[in-house]
# Entry
Amino acid sequence: MIVDQAYGRAKSKFGFISSFYGQLTNVTTIHFNLLPKLWGLTGLWISRYAPVGFRGEITHSIVFFVAFNLAGNLSNMPLQYYKNFVLEEKFGFNKLTKKLVGVILCLDEGEEIAYDKCSFSRMPSGHSF
# Structure
């Protein structure tokens, strides 16, 4: 019981720090106009490296989406590492290996793409196109 309470307190403190980091990331993104800069950078990549048939807005949006999610996952990776391999291991709850975390990150990226694809294909009333 005491271990569960200590784990709950540690998880709560980590949640506070994680939320603060998320807010700091959002404020930084807005303050420095990082989304328009990333949009321009992905447009530059497409104009340089994509074949002529793939230089439209759809391709640009897909590349932007992948770059945005990749940057988000990379910026959150230290927090996830701490949560899984320091915090949970300290209390004996860790069941993950570092190799498994790499697989989960790849699956998470694919899951986000699939979820966003499904939500784009939905009309506001919940009916599909």
Summary: The chain has one domain: 2-120. Residues 2-120 form one domain.
